[in-house]
Amino acid sequence: MNSLLARLGRGLLGGYSLAFFIFLYLPIALIVVYSFNSNPINMMIWNGASLDWYRSLFGLSNSLGSSKMYVESSDQLLAALRTSLTIALSTTAISTVAGTFMALALARYRFRLQGFYRVLMFMPMLMPDIVLGIALLIFFVGIGMPLGKASIIIGHCTFLISYVFLVVSARLAGMDTRLEEASADLGASPMHTFRRITLPLILPGVIGGALLAFIISMDDLVITYFISGVDSTTLPVYIYGMIRRGIKPEINAIATLLLIASFIIAAVGLYLRSRQPATTKEDTHG
Amino acid sequence: MSVYTRIAPVVEIRGAVKHYRAPEGHLVPALDGIDLSVGANEFVTLLGPSGCGKTTLLRVISGFEQLDDGELLIQQTQMNSVPAHQRPVHTVFQSYALFPHMSVGDNVGYALEVRGVGKAERRTRIAEALELVGLGGLERRKPGQLSGGQQQRVALARALVDRPALLLLDEPLSALDRQLRQSMQRELKKLQHELGIAFVFVTHDQEEALTMSDRIVVLNGGHIQQIGTPTEIYDRPANAFVAGFIGESNLFEVSVSAGNADTADLLSERGDLLQVPRRDLQVGQKLQAMLRPEQFQLDRPQAQGAALEGKVEQTLFIGKDFEVSLRTVHGSQVKAVIRDTGRHDLHRLQPGSSLQLWYALDAVHLIPEVKP
Asked: N or C: which end of chain B has fewer CB within 10 A?
C-alpha cells in the first residue's frame, strides 16, 4: 500500500516536472522550429523547411524575391546589431573593471559606512528598469547631453557595475584572506600580491561578471528604449519596432541566432568556472 | 632537550599593548604589557589557552597587526610600522595558505620570485628546500593533490626557502593526526637546530610546547605568566595558572602551621597535612603547594618523605601507568600516577581500599600566594 502511494507520488512528481519544462521551453522550441518554416504568409502553418528567413536577415537572395523592403530591413538589422555590440563591449569593459575594484575595496578594506556602500551597490539591480530609464532620460536631457551610444553606455554601466560587483564579491567571499597575507609575508608588495594571487583566484568571477554584463547589455530593452537616440537603435529596440509593424518570420530567425549566441557565451562561462578550483579554502585544507 | 646558548636577540618586544574592540564597543586587551626577546637561534614557544594573546603577538611580529603601544625590534631595527612584506620574517600558517593555483614548485619559490631571483637559481633552491622537508621531486604537483602532512611540509619549505632571520609558526601541527604530529615535532626541532634560525611557535598544546622548545612563554589574558625552559616551567610553575595549564597537578591552598628543626608543616584548608623542608617559611604564611601525580609512590621513599592517606575512588590503567584517584580522610581529591610494571600492587589500588600515597618532602613545589 505504502509502496503504491510512493510510486503514485513519484509518478505525479515526474509528470509535474515534465509539464513544467514543456511550459518553459516549448515557446522557445517553437520559435526555433518556425524560423525554418517556408510559409511566408502565416508563420504558424508549417509549409516545409527553408533557410529563407536567415538568408533574408543577411540580405541574401531568397525565394521571396529581392523586394526593396527586405534589403532595407536587413541593412537596418545589421546596423542595429553593430550598435548593440559596440555598446555591449564598451559597457562590459567599463563595468567589469569598476565592479571588480569596488568589490575588492569593500571586501578588503575597513572603512566608515561600509555596509551603507554595500547597499548602494545593490540598489541599481533592484531598481525597476522603467524608473531607472526615466531617471536617466531626465538626467541626460537636464544636463544637455545628446542621446546616443554614449548615453546608452553610461546608462548600462549604472546597473551592470552592480552585477559584476555581486559576482566578484561572491568569489572574494570564498577566497581565504590568509593567501594574501601569506603572499605579503613572503615579501610580495601589494601590487605583486594582486597580480599573482588575488587576480588569478578571482578571475573566474571577473570573467563570469563580464559575460553576464555583456548578455544583459545586449538584451536590455526598457532602459535603452528611453535613452537611445535616433541613430543608436540597438538590436532589442529594433526587434521591438519590427513587432509593432507586425510579426514577421525573420524575428524567429533573429531570436534563434540570439539564443545560439547566448548558449555559446554561457558554455564558455561554465567551462571557465569548471577549470578553476571551486573554492580556494577547500584546497588549502585538503 | 638541547643545551641552548644565547646570542644577540633577533626579536625584542618591549611593553607591547594591543586592544581589540569588542562587538559591544568596549576595548578588550589582547596584549597587556608584553616584554620578550628571542635569541637568534632559539626555539621559543608561545603557549596558552585560546584568546590568551599568543596569535596576536605572532601577528604583531609578522606585521599583520599594529601595536597600540610599546616597541617591536627585529634585528635591532624598530619595526612597529614597517609593512609585513618588508620584514625579514616568514610565517607558516595554521591553514598552510598554499596558493592553490600554483604548482608546489612555484609556491616554494614564491619568496625568491618576489625578490627577482633568476629562474635557474630559483629552480635549484626550490629543489633544495623541498629536499630539506623530504618532498624532493614534487615540484610539478598542485597543492590540492597533496595530503595534509605534505601540504604542511610545502608550507614549511616555502617559508624557509630564502632563510629568513625568524620563522613564525601558527599552530602548524594542529590539523595533523597524533602520530604525524609527533614525528613532525621532532623533525621541526631538528630542522631548527640544523638551520640555526629562530623559531617562534604558537600552540595551545602543552605537550607540544614541552617537547620542542628551548624556552616557553606561558600567556594568559594578554599577560606573560612565566618564561622559562620546559623543565623550569614544569617543575617550578610561577603561579596556579601555569601549574594547572602545564601537566596535571594537585594544588593545595595551605598555611604554615608549625616549623620544626628541618621541616615545616602545612595545613590545607580542608585539613590535610603536608610536610616540606623548612627553608625560610614563617608560621602563618599562606601558600599554594603543588604535587605532580607522578611524584607519589606507594611505599616510603629513601629520602625524607611523608604520606597522604585516604580511600581509592577509582583506578584507571592509562597504558604503562595506573591513574589513581584518592579521596583523603579530610575530603580532598588527589590524583596519583603509579607505575606498577610487575603488576604486584594491583590489590592495593582496588577502589574502596585504604591507601597511603608517599612523596619526598623536597618534591613539593611551593607557590607564594599572590592576591590580585
From this structure: C
In this structure, the answer to whether residues A131 and A213 fall within a common structural domain is yes
A199: domain range? 66-285
Residue in B63, B146, B158 nearest the CB of A186: B158
Question: Do residue A21 and residue A113 come from a single domain?
Answer: no
Both A45 and A73 in a single domain? no
User: Scanning every residue of chain B, which has its alpha carbon at the shortest distance from the alpha carbon of A192?
Assistant: B114
Is the domain of A87 the same as that of A187? yes
A95 within a domain of the structure (yes/no): yes
Same domain, A171 and A116: yes
Are A19 and A128 found together in one domain? Answer: no
Would you say residue A60 lies in a domain? no
A74 and A47 share one domain: no
Of A183, A192, A280, the CB nearest to B100: A280
Taking the Cβ of residue B20 and every Cβ of chain A, the question of whether any pair is shorter than 8 Å is answered with: no
Is residue A275 situated within a structural domain? yes
The number of folded domains in chain A is 2
SS3 sequence of A175-217 = CCHHHHHHHHHCCCCHHHHHHHHHHHHHHHHHHHHHHHHHHHH
The pTM for the full model equals 0.80
Chain B residue with the nearest C-alpha to that of A203? B101
As a whole-number percent, the residues of chain B with pLDDT over 90 amount to: 71
Reduced to 3 states (helix: H, G, I; strand: E, B; else coil), residue A131 is helix
Please tell me which residue of chain B has the smallest CA distance to A282: B144
Q: B63-88: per-residue pLDDT in tens?
A: 999 999 999 999 989 999 999 999 99
User: A187 contacts in B (CB within 8 Å)?
Assistant: 85-86, 111, 114-115, 162
Give the pLDDT band of residue A239 (cuts 50, 70, 90): confident
Q: What does the H/E/C string look like for A146-162?
A: CCCHHHHHHHHHHHHHH
Check if the beta carbon of residue B290 is closer than 8 Å to that of residue B237.
Answer: yes
The answer to whether position A171 is within a domain reads: yes
DSSP 8-state code for residue B281: P
- List the grid coordinates of A28: 522557445
Nearest CA in chain A to B148: A286
Least CB–CB distance from A182: residue in B83, B93, B144: B93
Residue A160 is part of a domain; what is its CATH number?
1.10.3720.10
Domains and CATH numbers, chain B: 9-245 (3.40.50.300), 250-368 (2.40.50.140)
Closest Cβ opposite residue B85 in set A184, A283, A285? A184
How close A169 gets to chain B, by Cα (Å)?
19
Indicate whether A283 pLDDT > 90: no
Does the beta carbon of A197 lie under 8 angstroms from any beta carbon of chain B?
yes
Q: CA B259 to CA B157: how far, in whole Å?
A: 59
Alpha helices, DSSP H, located in chain B: 54-62, 104-108, 110-114, 119-132, 148-160, 178-195, 206-212, 230-235, 240-245
ipTM score for this prediction: 0.83
